[in-house]
Amino acid sequence: MRKKISVIGAGNVGATCVQRIAEKGYADVVMLDIIEGLPQGKALDMMESAPVLGFDAKVTGTNDYKDTANSDVVVITSGLPRKPGMTRDELLQANMKIVGEVTRNVVKHSPNCILVLVTNPLDAMVYLAYKVSGFPASKVLGLSGALDATRLRYFIAEELKVSVEDVYACVVGEHGKNMVVIPRLCTVDGVPITTLLPKETIDRLIERTIGAGAEIVGYLKTGSAFYAPSAGVAHMVDAIMMDKKQVVQSAVVLQGEYGIKDSVISVPVKLGSKGVDEVVEMELTPEEKQALASSAEAVKGLIKAMDLK
Fold this sequence. Notes:
nine-stranded mixed beta sheet
């Protein structure tokens, strides 16, 4: 019997996540949304593509959380999208209400699932889901570094005219303006970009990565990115569902790692069937450690603003 994955939210990010996961064929996927007909219609459309694409996984659209019962992984994309000029912080109060309610409904029907958060402000929403669910930190994580790193990998590849497959990027910290890029650990076929690019170019690429989401919002006007975010989510879900023990930069609740407690930032973690198998602690310079600590403090500010009881 195939495994079961549920995706909450049938908007651009959620629906594209469903499509990417279903096409892999290793799990049936339930897509839930509060809008009647939306998930059902998108699910039917996807299933009608199955004969051409050759996948047998079943996609079900629903408005009822009962249909998500006993999911192995639940991806939460529900929330208000970011509008032009809006910061992730401004989304906090509205989206915490949505994510809190969604998390309670999900946990009621799938008490043993692993939660993957996508809703912004991402790091704060991971902490909220962690508190509301009562799950161990290893079973609540968020799309963060997996997305930020793939964006920077693309920018580096374009700058150097090399294959994206040859590029590795180290992007940790908050998913937002306080993200931390460690250039000496960003490589092209193992060669640090600090030896391949001048500092001013690296700084430009880092700034573009920090503002990558806003850049896309600026173009779209009425929406936000979904192709790259959904690819990042599928990458994380693959590692979990196939028990790959793959190291993926993800937003997690830290419990002393890197000297940080009770905050959420993106760090390299080993993902497997139980969620986060291990937080991988890199050797950082004092300056890098300070940057990571400052990023974690910024997230703590959002956590405090949520005023969780």
